[in-house]
Amino acid sequence: MISEFKVNYLEEPKLLFNNRGEAYNPCIGLIKYGPRFSGNINLEHKQFKVGIIGSNKTISQTRLIFESFEYKIHPRNQIRPWKIPFPGLNKDSPLRFSFIFDPSWEAKFTFDEFNEIEKLNNKNDRAEYTLNLIKEKMISIYNKETPPDIILICIPDEIFAFCTDNKLIKPIIKIDDDDFHNRIKLIAMKLKMPTQLIRPETLQFEKTQERFLVAWNLVVGMLYKCQKGHPWKLTYLEDGTCYVGISFFKEKGKDTIRASLAQIFLDTGESFVLRGESFSWANPKFPKSPHLSRDNAINIIELVLKQYKINKDGKEPQRIVIHKSSNFWDDELEGFKEASKNIPQKDFIAILESDLKFFTIGKYPILRGTLISSNDYKNNFLFTTGFVPSLETYPGLSIPRPLLIRPFQLKSDITKICKEILSFTKLDWNNTFVYSKYPVTLSVSEKVGNVMAESSAQNVEELDSHYFYYM
Length: 471
What we know:
With 471 residues, the chain is an alpha/beta fold. It has 13 helices and 18 strands. The mean pLDDT is 90.
């Protein structure tokens, strides 16, 4: 129980777009300034090549959807600061990019292939056969003289009917314990080809987000994958700082085996994901909350620093910030400290869930960016959701709950730490909303961990470190 505390307000972080244009809202920034293009930020307009794998029907539906995206799409109801109309993709679009399609980049499921799938005895065999067909079609498209920048994989209804229990509201195709979606990501990763899977309900706009929001999220996610680079970045991240999120995943088929995962962010806006060593975890007191041994902690940070030096011409960082979604145990702390002993500044921060609630006198909840700290700064409650002045509202339904920010090694000011965490809630390039609750240093780890956990991934010596292959 906190008897005395200090209250601070952290202003909403801005994002950086083309020509150093700044905005709070990703959609407004993209419309006003255009995205940051990899390699050449001053391009007037850029076209990206798109391939498609699907049936005659799903390929036709996909083309129709992207034809509709050429025009402005409004929200169903009133335009709000958090409901920005999609401006359309065409040569005059303020977004400054568009997608081009060509039949030579398409690969179709044939009637005979559907028959072969249906003849197989069980759903597992059908799913495996289908996955091999998709692999063959991806390789065929990849081997074109001029391959596309991305392949859309539009799974036909027939595949879901053959390979899943159709009674489920949103059926998922499985191959033994493996996930069909994740296996496709691993195949595409080996080809160095970004992919976007599109389900039948998205093609038909059934039980999806509003059409304008589907357009925003699908198009921006594809942009990030096509150019293999971020469409926006933060206006400020400290130079010479390596930001790391540490999380864990369970390897499939191995009940007690865990592996660590590091999500790295640099001040340039670049991000990478790295898989640590596998280790056994069978703690009866904390069965679902794995922690690293001293040696494993050293190993993962050494991998992180190696990646940092590759991207920084051999330079060591002057500061390392480690975010973790659980408390740091002593062995972990010792390992992290040992691996980073040559780095002058170290901040090791646990970012935890909190049940604490604060109420305001008025009708609106507490401000996003509110920071409530105990006098010793050992417990800090950061509201990453709440009333947003730039939106003039609270775009949520329940009472906001803060994140508990708990430092285990602190060289920097806690306000600076929390400003960085708040900034990282705006860097999910798969989501065009103004913010997420969790910093991207931790929030994307579930998607990445799901792919890394697949049994086929465990046999890959070195998985690709770029996030766009996992999303």
